Amino acid sequence: MWLEAKLDNPQGFLYYLNSLFQRTPPTALIIDAKELFDATQQFLVHHGIRLPQDTSIVCSDPHPTFAWCHPTIAHIRYDSNIWVRNTIRWVNKVARGKNNLCQMIRKSKFVVGGTIGPVKIEPNQLNQKTIGKGLDK
Fold first, then answer.
1. What are the helix (H) ranges across 59-119?
2. Of 126 and 39, more confident
3. Model's pTM, two decimal places?
4. How far apart are the C-alpha atoms of 52 and 27, rounded to whole Å?
Protein backbone atom coordinates (compact mmCIF):
# COMPACT_ATOMS: atom_id res chain seq x y z
CA MET A 1 0.00 0.00 0.00
CA TRP A 2 2.89 2.40 0.74
CA LEU A 3 3.96 2.52 -2.89
CA GLU A 4 0.43 3.28 -4.09
CA ALA A 5 -0.04 6.29 -1.85
CA LYS A 6 1.26 9.65 -3.00
CA LEU A 7 2.10 11.36 0.26
CA ASP A 8 2.88 14.69 -1.35
CA ASN A 9 -0.79 15.65 -1.51
CA PRO A 10 -3.74 15.59 0.91
CA GLN A 11 -5.64 12.89 -0.97
CA GLY A 12 -2.63 10.56 -0.98
CA PHE A 13 -2.03 11.11 2.72
CA LEU A 14 -5.68 10.40 3.52
CA TYR A 15 -5.52 7.26 1.39
CA TYR A 16 -2.46 6.13 3.35
CA LEU A 17 -4.09 6.82 6.73
CA ASN A 18 -7.20 4.89 5.67
CA SER A 19 -5.08 1.93 4.62
CA LEU A 20 -3.24 1.94 7.96
CA PHE A 21 -6.46 1.66 9.95
CA GLN A 22 -8.33 -0.86 7.76
CA ARG A 23 -7.15 -4.14 9.28
CA THR A 24 -5.16 -3.81 12.48
CA PRO A 25 -5.03 -0.18 13.62
CA PRO A 26 -1.61 0.97 14.78
CA THR A 27 -1.19 1.66 18.48
CA ALA A 28 1.29 4.48 17.82
CA LEU A 29 2.19 6.86 15.01
CA ILE A 30 5.24 9.09 14.54
CA ILE A 31 4.33 11.90 12.16
CA ASP A 32 6.99 13.90 10.35
CA ALA A 33 5.68 17.46 10.03
CA LYS A 34 3.20 19.62 11.93
CA GLU A 35 0.89 19.89 8.92
CA LEU A 36 0.72 16.10 8.62
CA PHE A 37 0.34 15.84 12.40
CA ASP A 38 -2.70 18.14 12.27
CA ALA A 39 -4.20 16.18 9.37
CA THR A 40 -3.63 12.92 11.27
CA GLN A 41 -5.28 14.30 14.41
CA GLN A 42 -8.30 15.38 12.38
CA PHE A 43 -8.47 11.94 10.75
CA LEU A 44 -8.38 10.19 14.14
CA VAL A 45 -11.07 12.43 15.64
CA HIS A 46 -13.29 12.02 12.57
CA HIS A 47 -13.05 8.23 12.86
CA GLY A 48 -13.70 8.15 16.62
CA ILE A 49 -10.15 7.09 17.47
CA ARG A 50 -9.27 8.50 20.88
CA LEU A 51 -5.90 9.98 21.76
CA PRO A 52 -4.06 8.53 23.60
CA GLN A 53 -6.43 5.74 24.70
CA ASP A 54 -6.59 4.06 21.27
CA THR A 55 -3.53 5.41 19.47
CA SER A 56 -0.50 7.34 20.66
CA ILE A 57 0.86 10.04 18.37
CA VAL A 58 4.21 11.87 18.27
CA CYS A 59 5.38 14.66 15.99
CA SER A 60 9.01 14.48 14.93
CA ASP A 61 9.16 18.26 14.50
CA PRO A 62 8.81 20.82 17.29
CA HIS A 63 6.31 23.64 16.85
CA PRO A 64 5.55 26.66 19.06
CA THR A 65 1.80 25.96 18.98
CA PHE A 66 2.29 22.67 20.84
CA ALA A 67 2.57 24.64 24.10
CA TRP A 68 -1.02 25.82 23.57
CA CYS A 69 -2.46 22.33 23.16
CA HIS A 70 -4.20 20.28 25.81
CA PRO A 71 -3.25 17.54 26.11
CA THR A 72 0.27 18.62 25.25
CA ILE A 73 1.75 17.20 22.06
CA ALA A 74 4.56 14.66 22.37
CA HIS A 75 7.34 15.72 20.03
CA ILE A 76 11.06 15.75 19.37
CA ARG A 77 12.91 19.01 20.02
CA TYR A 78 16.17 19.87 18.25
CA ASP A 79 18.22 22.85 17.09
CA SER A 80 17.13 23.58 13.50
CA ASN A 81 20.09 25.95 13.00
CA ILE A 82 22.33 22.90 12.68
CA TRP A 83 20.16 21.67 9.78
CA VAL A 84 20.39 25.07 8.08
CA ARG A 85 24.19 25.24 8.41
CA ASN A 86 24.64 21.67 7.15
CA THR A 87 22.27 22.24 4.23
CA ILE A 88 24.17 25.37 3.17
CA ARG A 89 27.46 23.47 3.46
CA TRP A 90 26.01 20.62 1.35
CA VAL A 91 24.71 23.01 -1.36
CA ASN A 92 28.09 24.77 -1.55
CA LYS A 93 29.94 21.45 -1.97
CA VAL A 94 27.51 20.22 -4.64
CA ALA A 95 27.84 23.56 -6.47
CA ARG A 96 31.63 23.01 -6.56
CA GLY A 97 31.11 19.49 -7.93
CA LYS A 98 32.08 17.71 -4.73
CA ASN A 99 30.36 14.62 -3.42
CA ASN A 100 29.04 15.16 0.09
CA LEU A 101 28.14 11.83 1.64
CA CYS A 102 28.70 12.59 5.32
CA GLN A 103 26.11 11.54 7.81
CA MET A 104 24.50 14.19 9.98
CA ILE A 105 23.66 13.32 13.55
CA ARG A 106 21.78 15.85 15.62
CA LYS A 107 21.22 16.06 19.31
CA SER A 108 17.56 15.96 20.15
CA LYS A 109 15.25 15.62 23.11
CA PHE A 110 12.03 13.64 23.28
CA VAL A 111 9.35 15.80 24.90
CA VAL A 112 6.75 13.62 26.56
CA GLY A 113 3.23 14.86 26.02
CA GLY A 114 -0.35 13.89 26.64
CA THR A 115 -0.70 12.31 23.20
CA ILE A 116 1.11 9.19 24.39
CA GLY A 117 -0.76 6.57 26.38
CA PRO A 118 0.06 3.20 27.88
CA VAL A 119 0.26 0.24 25.56
CA LYS A 120 -3.15 -1.36 25.28
CA ILE A 121 -3.14 -5.09 25.96
CA GLU A 122 -6.22 -7.07 25.07
CA PRO A 123 -7.05 -10.13 27.21
CA ASN A 124 -6.38 -12.45 24.25
CA GLN A 125 -2.87 -10.98 23.92
CA LEU A 126 -1.86 -12.12 27.40
CA ASN A 127 0.33 -15.16 27.66
CA GLN A 128 2.40 -16.79 30.36
CA LYS A 129 5.34 -14.41 29.80
CA THR A 130 3.27 -11.23 30.21
CA ILE A 131 1.18 -12.59 33.07
CA GLY A 132 4.35 -13.45 34.95
CA LYS A 133 5.56 -9.86 34.62
CA GLY A 134 2.48 -8.30 36.17
CA LEU A 135 0.91 -6.97 32.97
CA ASP A 136 -2.35 -8.78 33.68
CA LYS A 137 -3.61 -6.08 36.03
1. 80-95
2. 39
3. 0.71
4. 9
